[in-house]
Amino acid sequence: MNILLVNDDGISAPGLQALYDAVKDLGKISVVAPDGERSAISHGITLDKPIPVRKYRNGTYEGVAVKGTPADCVKLALSELLGAKPDLVISGINLGCNTGLNVIYSGTVGAAAEAVFHGIPGIAVSLTTYTDPNWEPAARFIHDTVKQIGRKGFPENLLLNINVPNVDSAQDIRGVKITEQGMAQWQETFDKRTDPKGRTYYWMSGVKKIKAESQTTDDTVLKNHYISVTPVQFNLTAYDRSKDVHELGLFYQK
User: Fold this and answer.
1) Tens digit of pLDDT for each residue in 129-177?
2) Would you give the distance in Å from CA 131 to the centre of its chain?
3) pTM
4) E strands, 99-174, where?
5) Domains present along the chain, CATH in parentheses
């Protein structure tokens, strides 16, 4: 397989190294990733300025560092940087889970989504911690997942959003569940500050509020030490709500 790796934590992030180590024996691996952290940038693309690139080498893998967004990285890789179209794009391993409404904001998911838009299978993989990561369970699971995709293929127009609990040992993982995206979101706080020139600015922080949701939602299964695999699609039409819109009485025909 030709496999493209990307992330939103930057090309030197340890999660990308862990991902590379997990799949390096499964095909020809290419790495195209942002030159620094681009978290929470969603599916943003660069339109108003040039996108510089440079070669990157860390002693284990070589790649291309892009001064742009995760989606930029995939676009450039497919259009300019790779000799052959990849069979699979994997984004991660991200520090911090991408569950609930975080999926909308996530640069990790945004990169995998860009692959899907081009008809290429996309996987986003994240670890549920920002500190003291144990990459082993996520690396082992993504290795097995890629092997299965190589054997059985992958449905078109579908993204797998994978989230892995951060546990002390792989033996602490209770299993894998196919999940639905929950509706948990961050409750933001803004710290108001003043810079040396007397100008006001704000620094955003917050706490994720986990809702009481069904046993099939992403955050719920993670809390119970299961790996969450959520199939994601990108036709956002709310087909089941058409009747509600019609009842507004806004429509006419000539």
Assistant:
1) 999 999 999 999 999 999 999 999 998 889 999 999 999 988 999 999 9
2) 18
3) 0.90
4) 122-127, 159-164
5) 2-183+213-246 (3.40.1210.10)
